[in-house]
Specification:
The protein is mainly beta and 361 residues long. The chain contains two helices and 24 strands. The longest helix has 10 residues, at 290-299. 49% of the residues are buried.
Length: 361
C-alpha cells in the first residue's frame, strides 16, 4: 500500500539517455519514492507473488527458457531453464500465507532432481525483470530458501560478468541450527580470479540469525554511485565502498534457483526436487531510459503531499495473513511506500545531462 507525504525539499534531477521501452506512471507516486529521508528514486517495481496466478502474463517479469551448456572445466552439469520450474502458487482460502497447493503462497522456483539431455543438464527456475534500465536503487525480496541440499537461491541485479550485485543462499550451508548468506559483488577482479568473487574484497559471508528455509525473510541491497549495502529484515550486514566493486551501468533484476554440481559452490544436484518460494519483490530505483525520464518530468510538475511516497524499512520477518494475497494483491509488508515525512531528500545523481531543480511546498 502506497501513500504520499508532506515536506519541503529540493531535489537535483539528473537524467541520462537510453531508450528501451514505454512505461506508465503511478499517479500517487509520480514524483518518486523517498528512502530513509535522504534519497529519492524515480521508479518502482512492486510485485506481490502471493496474488500472481499466471507468471507468464506478468508485465514486470519474464520467465527464462534457455540453456547454459555443460562446461566440465567449471562444473559437472549445465543448466536448463524451463517454464515448468517457475510455478505460481497464489494464496487461497482463509489464510493468505497458504497457497493453492497447501504450501506457503508465492512464486515457486524449482531445481529438479531428474536430469535432462543424457544427464548433462539440471532443470532450474529463473525470472528476469523486463526493465533493463535500472541504475541505482533499493531492492527487496521476500524469500523462503530451499531445505533440500545442493542448490543456490539467488536474488541479484545484473549487467554483465563484471557488474553484478548478488545475494545467494546455498542450501548446503543451511542446517538445523545454522544458515549463511553470501554477498557477492562481481567485478574485473573477480573475473581475473576465474569468476570467483570470494578471492576478492567484493565478497562477504555472514551467519544469519535464523534458519533460512524455516520462513520468509526480506533480503535487500541498496546501491548508490559510491556504495552497495546489504540487509536482512532491515538489519545491516555489510557495506562495500571500494570503487572497483560498485557498478555504474544500467541492468536488470534476477531471481533464480539453480545447481550445476560445482563441489565448491552449489554442490548437488539435489536428490529430490528442491523449491525456493518468493513472496514479493519491491524495487525502487532510477531509470536510464530517456522516455521514462521525460514521463517523470512531465508528471512531476509540482511535487506535493499527493505525489511523493516514502519507503519505510522492514522491521522484522514479513508476514501475510489475508485471503487472496496481501493488500488486495498489491504489496505485502511494511517496507512498501507508506505515509511519512521526507526531509531534505534528493535524487541520487547519475551520469547525464544538466540537473533540473524542483521545490516541494
Amino acid at each position: 500500500m502506497r501513500s504520499a507525504k508532506t515536506s519541503l525539499w529540493k531535489l537535483p534531477l539528473v537524467l541520462p539517455l537510453l531508450s528501451l521501452v514505454s512505461y506508465t506512471l503511478a499517479d500517487t507516486c509520480s514524483c518518486g519514492y523517498a528512502q530513509d529521508a535522504n534519497v529519492i528514486w524515480t521508479d518502482s517495481i512492486e510485485t506481490d507473488f502471493t496474488a500472481v496466478r499466471d507468471i507468464e502474463t506478468s508485465q514486470d517479469w519474464a520467465v527464462q527458457k534457455w540453456t547454459s551448456a555443460r562446461n566440465v572445466s567449471e562444473a559437472p552439469y549445465g543448466r536448463l531453464r524451463e517454464a515448468r520450474n517457475v510455478v505460481a502458487n497464489p494464496a487461497t482460502g482463509g489464510n493468505g500465507a497458504v497457497g493453492k497447493d497447501g504450501s506457503p503462497a508465492g512464486l515457486q522456483l524449482f531445481v529438479r532432481s531428474v536430469l535432462e539431455d543424457d544427464n548433462a543438464l539440471v532443470p532450474v527456475g529463473e525470472i528476469f525483470s523486463k526493465r533493463e534500465d535500472i541504475q541505482y536503487g533499493s531492492f527487496r525480496a521476500g524469500i523462503q530458501a530451499s531445505s533440500v541440499n545442493g542448490t543456490v537461491g539467488a536474488f541479484f541485479w545484473y549487467r554483465n560478468a563484471t557488474q553484478e550485485i548478488d545475494m545467494e543462499l546455498l542450501s548446503a550451508e543451511t542446517t538445523a541450527t545454522n544458515s549463511t548468506l553470501n554477498m557477492v559483488l562481481q567485478s574485473w577482479q573477480s573475473l581475473w580470479a576465474g569468476s570467483d568473487a570470494s578471492k576478492t574484497a567484493g565478497f562477504k559471508k555472514d551467519a544469519l540469525p535464523f534458519i533460512a528455509d524455516d520462513a520468509v525473510h526480506e533480503y535487500r541491497f541498496d546501491w548508490t554511485p559510491t556504495s552497495v549495502s546489504f540487509y536482512v529484515d532491515s538489519n545491516h550486514l555489510w557495506t562495500n565502498t571500494l570503487p572497483e566493486f560498485i557498478p555504474a551501468s544500467p541492468g536488470y533484476i534476477v531471481l533464480n534457483h539453480w545447481s550445476n554440481g560445482n563441489s565448491g559452490w552449489s554442490r548437488g544436484p539435489p536428490k529430490e526436487d528442491a523449491k525456493m518460494t518468493v513472496t514479493y519483490v519491491k524495487a525502487y530505483f532510477n531509470s536510464t531510459d530517456s522516455e521514462r525520464q521525460r514521463d517523470f518530468v512531465s508528471a512531476c510538475k509540482k511535487p506535493s503531499s499527493d505525489n511523493v511516497c516514502q519507503v519505510t524499512p522492514q522491521t522484522g520477518p514479513p508476514t501475510c495473513r489475508k485471503p487472496g494475497g496481501c493488500e488486495d494483491g498489491t504489496i505485502t509488508v511494511s517496507s512498501a511506500a507508506t505515509t511519512g515525512k521526507v526531509l531534505g531528500a534528493s535524487l541520487i545523481s547519475i551520469v547525464g545531462v544538466a540537473a533540473v531543480w524542483l521545490v516541494v511546498t
